[in-house]
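Dock heme C; give full complex structure.
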Amino acid sequence: MRSKNVVIAVALVLPLLGAGCVKEYSFKRDIHPVLKEKCASCHNGAGEGYAASGFSVASYETLMKGTKFGAVVIPGSSVSSTLARAIEGKTHASIAMPRTGSPLSKEEIQMLKAWIDQGAKNN
Ligand code: HEC
């Protein structure tokens, strides 16, 4: 009897989580504005970050292309994405980003990671 109640409770709560709590982030609305504000001064197709790494946040295409060595966003896997690790301070300090200026807020970091985990779509 008791376990049946648990099953019913879970069955009722799961759709609520799916509908309300897990927000789908948009590149245009949520992600690009943050990258433009916090990263573009050095990574916009010019600037010291672009000169050193070839990484530009000017567009979705340049973001996904990554650095001259390869991708820094792995769709579906923020833990494998250099970009996410760099903004969380999980890389070597020399590539902790942004290099100078104000770091990303906890909310911005969570949002970027969620967008990557949701497939890093051009939405
Ligand atoms: C003040 C300038 C500056 C700002 C602002 C900046 N970067 Fe950088 N970035 C650099 C420099 C310089 C490098 C090259 C570092 C190196 O390889 O030694 C770099 C390298 C990188 C790399 C390549 C790391 C690698 O694998 O070698 C990534 C990814 C990156 N930046 C992401 C970002 C993101 C995301 C932001 C915004 C949150 C940002 N950067 C803001 C200067 C900056």
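Observed: Residues 38-39, 41-43, 48-49, 52-53, 55, 67, 72, 82-83, 86-87, 94-95, 97-101, 104 surround heme C (CB under 6 Å).
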